[in-house]
Amino acid sequence: MTTHVVAGMRVLRAVADRPDPTLPLAVGDLARGLGTALSTTSRLCSELTDLGLLEHAPAYGSYRIGPQAVRLSGRAAARFVPAVRYALTLLAHRTGETAFLGAPVAGGVRVVAAVESVWTLQSPARVGELVTDARRAVVRAAWDRDEEDPGAGSGQAVESTVGMGVEVAVPVRSPAGECVAVLGVRVPVSRSTPGVARARRLLKEARQVLAAELASSPDGPDRPGSPPGDPSRAPAGLEAAWRVLWHLAGGRDTVTGIARASGLRPDRTRRLLESCRRADLVRTGRDRGDVWLGWGVHGWHRAVAVPTMLQLGRPLVARTADRAGACAFITVLDGLRSLTLVEELRDMGEGLGMTPWLGRLAPIIGSDGGPTLVQDIDERRLVDILPARHTPAQVDMFMRRFRRAARDGVLSMRSIDELGVISVSAPVRDAAGAVAAAACVVGPTEVVSPRVRAVEAETRALAAGVSELLCAPDPGAQTSR
Which terminus has fewer CB within 10 Å in the chain: N or C? Predict the structure, then answer.
């Protein structure tokens, strides 16, 4: 049974770890990649599908990530959303370069969150990317052994130049000293002076934000939840492992605590944890008898967000535009800019038309969903990193709208740049409960203003519909982050 669980968890990781885990992956390709028999791989995929960790893809005999795996990822990452969002936004905004968070995994470091550079020519990082080159700074920073790489082991910034890119990285450690993640900045060689020096300084500041969050973590799971499945019966191997992983997604715990919460015997819990460790999903603390879920799973729910909104969000946006009698959009945060991901334009009346914004970037101050998109950043921190080019009056208005969006859950506002336009926005939330996008409805003041409450209701409904696609937790069940 132990071998069965290890093989099943490796199948799950092979599907979910990809940069786009919503793409179909054929059973034959899975079997070849993992070195397992086709029949065995097929049975494992079927079992994982029954648990909701995988689901059938449209192509025959292929699979993609399932909703329960997305929820597991979101549950694990939820506590750290504000800290990660702020740290990466701070790095990307003040360096102008790509900032990313990586998780140590077997064979290297996997990118689990990233904010792109503002420049056209950039050194990119993509969620799901696996870095295995031992020369790279992000891999060296993840090493815990001082004797192998003194710079990395001491927690100092590590630098590497590979090809036309420079990478600077620092380890992020738990209070017990384990390297749980790595913060990094990537800079093209052509901008490495003074970019690298700036990155080194800011990485230390950003790391303090994450370290403070780790230090404030409770001794046990801070997000209790019922174990998946029927608690009245003894679960089979993969289902039992799923119970253990779900519990650990709420926070680190001891074997005794895990067994009690999962309804499993301690000896069986130990075997399941060893199987999950061999599959590189869980890790054991250095000096304490606790176990924690590796941060490699934190990227799964982020990797599915954009593909899901592009594939499944358009019909919802079109329906909202028709019902609201205005233009409807889904916008996402790109650093401190808004990017239009999905749009449905409608006739604005004789003599009027809406300029397409699909694929275009807009400054966060002045964009339709701006105050909604940055809801995960603490107000005091947000003021410190807003672009300096805006006037104090514009910043003050933006922050008042930010607070109103937080209070009401929906925001109606007149454009600060254009007369005669009203926008309504509401937050789209992902599996971590984080703001993944803004649902926006935009139209002429004469059209929207008389029916603004109805348009707000349609905007809320659009946000809720897209949030459901992203496996967002029930708003009533969310705990404060």
Answer: N
| pTM (global) more than 0.70 | yes
pLDDT tens digits, 175-213: 888 899 999 999 999 999 888 999 999 999 999 999 999
CA pseudo-torsion sign 376, 378, 381, 387:
positive
Query: Which of 124, 183, 218 is closest to 479 using CA atoms?
Result: 218
Helix (H) or strand (E) holding 278, with range, is helix 266-278
107, 130 in Cβ contact below 8 A? Answer: yes
Q: What is d(CA 185, CA 202) in angstroms, rounded to the nearest whole number?
A: 10
Task: Please give the C-alpha separations between residue 476 and each of 243, 356, 362, in angstroms, as whole numbers.
Answer: 23, 36, 33
Any idea of the CA torsion for 246, 250, 252, 254, to the nearest 10 degrees?
-60
CATH number for the domain harbouring residue 433: 3.30.450.40
Distance CA 468, CA 465 (A): 5
User: 290, 309, 335 — which closes off a domain?
Assistant: 290
Residue 70 lies in a domain: no
Cα distance between residue 276 and residue 271, in whole Å: 9
Alpha-carbon distance of 274 to 283, in angstroms, equals 9
| Mean predicted confidence (pLDDT) in 441-453 | 92
Q: What is the pLDDT of residue 235?
A: 82
Do 238 and 383 belong together in one domain? Answer: no
**Are 431 and 468 members of one domain?**
yes
- Final residue before a domain boundary, out of 235, 258, 290: 290
Closest CA to 481 of 437, 447, 439, 433: 433
What pLDDT is recorded for position 150?
A: 44
Amino acid (1-letter code) at residue 86? Y
Give the number of other CB atoms < 10 A from CB of residue 145. Answer: 9
Establish whether the linkage from the previous residue to 392 is cis, with ω within 30° of 0.
no
Alpha carbon distance 431, 210 (integer Å) = 20
pLDDT in tens, 33-87: 999 999 999 999 999 999 999 999 999 999 999 999 999 999 999 999 999 999 9
Grouping H, G, I as helix, E, B as strand and the rest as coil, residue 253 is strand
